[in-house]
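Milestone M4 deliverable, item 7.
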Amino acid sequence: MTTVVIGTHDLRAALTAVRPHAEKNADFETFRRVRLEITAENITVVATDRVSAGLAVVSVWETEDSLADESILDLTPEQVDKILQIFKAPKDKGDEPSAILRLEVGDNFFTLTDVSGLPGIDGQSMTQPRTATDDAFPDVPHLVARSRSGELRWVEQFAA
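Output delivered:
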């Protein structure tokens, strides 16, 4: 099981930014997802509809187990909408604790729990079945990095 602690504001901002890029047509199931690539330092959130791509990064505050390898969690657009509905980020109030979520990813499920309150007292929690990871999903972070580091070129012919 992979367990990380992240900021609610960061996760909401990333999901909100990337969600419009997820495929809307149910016939293209490979692209009808938002992918979270979890490492010990960051969660890279990506989505693509084959025309546009969205990429955002969420900082991991702490890990509750050792993350030897990257873990991948695919979310359906409906699951993303549910997360955004349930986990509202409160306004910053100076010295009060920030909004914090614990993400646990198991073999067949994932759980998001609000752990912003007192230690040992959890807030809202949501457990959902995992969407099967599709190996055909493109490596969006690699595509973005390659386009940013490549040379500028003029396009002589463009087809859409």
